[in-house]
Specification:
This protein has a three-stranded antiparallel beta sheet. The chain contains 22 helices and three strands. By secondary structure, it is mainly α. The protein folds into three domains: 54 residues, 2-Layer Sandwich (Herpes Virus-1); 212 residues, Alpha Horseshoe (Leucine-rich Repeat Variant), CATH 1.25.10; 67 residues, no CATH class. Helices cover 63% and strands 2% of the residues. Pfam families: ARM_PUB (PF25598), U-box (PF04564). Its EC number is 2.3.2.27. This is RING-type E3 ubiquitin transferase. One of its GO terms (molecular function) is ubiquitin protein ligase activity.
Length: 378
């Protein structure tokens, strides 16, 4: 049976799974290729609301949704199987537990850990495919029991509880409700003391919750949320580092959180990780460069411009875009940065990029050319 993805993962235009989700200025998300075809055809209204758009609408990468889509298969504790094909011979001899039974087992404080792990595994399988099951879980009061399992010392119980919490967070109606039930505190604790796979899922949950604007402020204000994400980026490995950086990017679209991230020492750590090849770190730097504290901290990094130039030369289109954006903020702010950029040949590189096929790269490169041409480095 093919995996049934949530409707929110599908483009409203093509109705296909989004591979590069972007947010239109109307606030709605589309797959980049689909909305670009709509705009190239001359339309200047949102396909959903019919509201007027600017002459040159911005397409903002929806990193939170992209990360959720890419990790959707990874968090499932069981592979999807056709409902009419039992996975084991023994399952033919007894009926599979119904959601109500599984929830009852989970909420009972007397249930053994092994039984709770099995119940969570089956609820993960069911909730992954069925929004009605997710709604039933939240309405039945099971969330508090799931949250208790999130901070279990048993790694299997913790991982499956976090996976179920992530599935529940996929529905917009749940995002604020989960926060109201205390999910952030439990997830932040898992960020600090969980196993690597658990930390990765915990970071992805914060990314999912941060899709709602009010939750970004709540997460950022929560003690140690940003600090623990920065800590994972510094000391973690593999997937957990990428997910922590993605979460930090999503959270720091809220201005107050940028300053908090800088105060937690994020800037030098992000530069170090970017040097090692994680372009998501460059994207976070592009967001942090929007605040004065972030620009000041970047100005203290030896070789700051040189690292960004390496991304301009060797990075992907997304990496080039955010390296340009960071340089544009820095050079607009500091004459010293302008002179360093001049020595590194940034102006010449930008001149070549103003003809790039990527519209965002062209626009930011043109802005940076103007900034550098108007400085005293000429």
């Amino acid at each position: 049976m093919a995996i049934q993805f949530p409707d929110d993962f599908k483009c409203p235009i093509s109705l296909e799974l989004m591979t590069d989700p972007v947010i239109l200025t109307s606030g709605h998300t589309f797959d980049r290729a689909s909305i670009q075809r709509w705009l190239d055809a001359g339309h200047r209204t949102c396909p959903i609301t019919n509201l007027a758009l600017p002459d040159y609408p911005s397409l903002i990468p929806n990193h939170a949704l992209r990360s959720l889509i890419s990790n959707y298969n990874l968090v499932s504790p069981l592979n999807s199987q056709p409902d009419h094909q039992p996975s084991q011979t023994c399952s033919r001899s007894r009926p599979q537990p119904q959601p109500r039974e599984l929830i009852s087992t989970l909420t009972s404080r007397s249930s053994p850990i092994e039984t709770k792990i099995d119940s969570l595994a089956q609820l993960n399988k069911l909730s992954k495919r069925d929004p009605a099951i997710r709604r039933h879980l939240t309405e039945s009061g099971a969330v508090s029991a799931v949250l208790r399992c999130v901070n279990s010392l048993d790694p299997a119980l913790q991982e499956k509880a976090l996976s179920l919490l992530l599935h529940l967070s996929l529905d917009d109606d749940n995002k604020v409700g989960l926060v109201a039930e205390g999910a952030i505190g439990r997830v932040v604790a898992a960020l600090k003391s969980g196993w690597p796979d658990c930390r990765a899922i915990a970071a992805t949950i914060l990314t999912s919750l941060a899709v709602v604007e009010v939750n970004k402020a709540t997460i950022g204000a929560y003690t140690d949320a940003i600090r623990n994400l920065v800590r994972i980026i510094r000391y973690g490995e593999g997937r957990e580092v990428k997910e922590a950086a993605t979460s930090l990017y999503a959270i720091c679209s809220f201005p107050d959180n940028r300053r908090r991230a800088v105060d937690c020492g994020a800037v030098p750590i992000l530069f170090r990780i970017a040097e090692l090849g994680l372009e998501r770190a460059v994207e976070v730097l592009g967001v942090l460069a929007k605040c004065k504290e972030g620009r000041d901290e970047m100005g203290r990094i030896d070789g700051c411009v040189g690292m960004l130039v390496k991304v301009l030369k060797n990075g992907s289109a997304r990496g080039v875009q955010y390296a340009l954006l960071t340089l544009d903020f820095l050079c607009s702010y500091s004459e010293l940065m302008c002179r360093e950029a001049g020595r590194e040949g940034v102006l010449e590189m930008c001149v070549s990029l103003v003809e790039d096929e990527n519209e965002k790269i062209r626009r930011i490169a043109s802005s940076l050319v103007q900034t550098l041409s108007g400085s005293r480095l000429m």
